[in-house]
Model the fold of this input.
Amino acid sequence: MKLLVDMNLPIKFADMLATKDIESEHWYRVGAPDARDSEIMSYAMEHNSIVVTCDLDFSAILSATKDIKPSVIQVRARNVPWEDLAGIVISSATQNAVELGAGAILTLDAKTSRLRLLPL
Done:
């Protein structure tokens, strides 16, 4: 599984997500900081990555286009330490790996998760 962390999350968060079974890269390291969301989506598609973001625009793009990829993990947690949040993302992504591989939006907060299969 490969995760592409959006600019609205810190680089150190992407580094925390990198584990033996999960690759993680931050958009800052692979693209322009002012890139449009559509460019990030295209990159994720080309590299078979799942976008990790706090931005709701990615879901809106998938809804409008009816695309089934790339999958998106929306982080909605507030006031959660980055280390704890990284653990939540890793655990939830691992539990939902099949669905994320096929195309899904996984919305996470500190205590709950919601999975929607694509297309919307």
About this structure: DSSP finds six helices and six strands in the chain. The mean pLDDT is 95.
